[in-house]
Design goal:
The complex is a heterodimer.
Chain A (H helix, E strand, L loop, with lengths): L2 H11 L4 E5 L2 E5 L5 H10 L7 E9 L4 E8 L6 E8 L6 E3 L8 H12 L2 E3 L31
Parallel strand pairs in A: 2-5, 6-7
Antiparallel strand pairs in A: 1-2, 3-4, 4-5
Chain B lengths: L6 H12 L3 E5 L2 E2 L4 E2 L1 E7 L2 E8 L7 H5 L4 H8 L7 H16 L5 H29 L3 H22 L8 E2 L2 E2 L7 H24 L2 H7 L7 H6 L4 H5 L7 H4 L20 H23 L20 E9 L2 E9 L7 E5 L1 H7 L1 H5 L4 H11 L3 H5 L1
Antiparallel strand pairs in B: 1-4, 2-3, 4-5, 6-7, 8-9, 9-10
Helix pairs in contact in B: 3-4, 4-5, 5-6, 5-12, 5-15, 6-7, 7-12, 12-15
The chains are: A alpha/beta, B alpha+beta.
Chain lengths: ~150, ~375
Amino acid sequence: MTNEQLKEKILTIEPSVVITENKQVLYVNIAKEKLFFLAKKLKETEELFFDYLVNITGVDRQKSMEVVYHLDSSKYRHLIVLKTDTADRENPAIDSVCSIWRTAEFHEREVFDFFGIRFNNHPDMRRLFLDDDWQGYPLRKDYVDDKIVQR
Amino acid sequence: MADYTNVLEHDRLKEKLEEQEYIINMGPQHPSTHGVLRLVLSLKGEIVKSIQPHCGYIHRGIEKMCEKLTYQQIIHLTDRLDYLSAHMNNEAVCLCVEKALDVEVPERVKYIRTILDELNRLASHELWWCSFGMDLGALTVFFYGLRDREKILDIFEESTGGRLLQSYNCPGGLMNDVHPDFQKKVKEFISYFRKKLPEYDELLSGNVILMERTKGIGLLSLEDAISFGVTGPSGRASGFACDVRKHYPYSAYNKVDFREVIYTEGDTFHRYKARIDEMWESMKIIEQLIDNIPDGDYSAKMKPVIRLPEGEYYQRVESSRGEFGVYIISDGNKTPYRIKFRSPNFSNLSALNIIAKDFKIADLIAIGGSLDLVIPDIDR
């Protein structure tokens, strides 16, 4: 499917998405309330069939916390980037996609570990790399640690 | 048992104890985890019931460090992720930067990069083969594998100056031109290794003990492989056609003819077979390119300070263990706003619980070996 067709198809599933294109890749922005619904549809719709979750990235946008999903289809070989964000920095929470792509379980734990974004309905929401008693979330832009060397 | 401060984990372990499951730690220092990985196993007799990986023993915060480094400096950290795929990791960053800047690198660079990729893959698979043999008690294998890998490292050393970590790619091309003897040495190696690879099969592939310990062990279905994002030879042994070189060609991969090795059995033996077959394919790729390296510059003209235009860029390459991805978010500065590495081992590890469940603890060693995990790539 070409990007134009993909765009059209995704817009019919969920009209509220904002789609931009950069370097032949589609970026699909979705409100966090609708993330799970859209993600499920992306995988289950026969023409889209995004069955392979490549990567989940957490991003600290300072005004908001963003989560980025790279999705690929093992059947059609098309890649899209799905993005959602939350303005709440104190207690950010986004729906988990574990039940759709099982690899998300690890990736979401990593995002939680470094950005403090909780994933609702995640079976095992613990830190992955750092100790359980670690203070703060290191990949946030406002993270302070006296061990970081300022240059 | 250690002091598990986390309530969630404590509850789960208690539950397991009530079910009369026996919980042991494998690692962080264990020869067959090939690095500092700790697995908390719950066993019923000899049967593995569940595996909880504990990562982070060698987490260096490379993604955070990269936010303070320029793009030329970042490549010196990426080869420390999966150190056995150092060249591919560097290439991913370079390709991503070049894509963002719309730089077209000279043909010569593309050819040399591809050849070095495949040499790196050969070296990595040889090391995997010898350590896999050793995991299963075949010690001779270890010496054979290292002997042949040494020859590739010599070629690397001559041209790039580095044996394990080359940092030879840089945005725009290569650090310097290859050694004048490069072509000759590579051709010598290929004709040498074409004779040696059948020896690998004779020594280990047909071995009864290996067959007994790997055939039908550690099954991973196609659905699970895709759902868990298991890529590389491990994924392809389950039938998941995920070779980035084939489906999203980069560098000179669209100019060569090679087979994407796919098996559908999904057991430990076929993960083994997939890697052996890949070595043949790698040699085929190198042979097609080595005589045709075009003349020209070894680097495109780049500005000394690289600033990527504001935006987001993603580039994927096939490393020795699967799909390696670089995702750069730039705000127009000379350092990335956020950089994320999609490491193949991280996703492959997430499937370990499914693969090894209900097999014996001794099989876990074979399964772990066949997944070929490199721990610094998981921890980053």
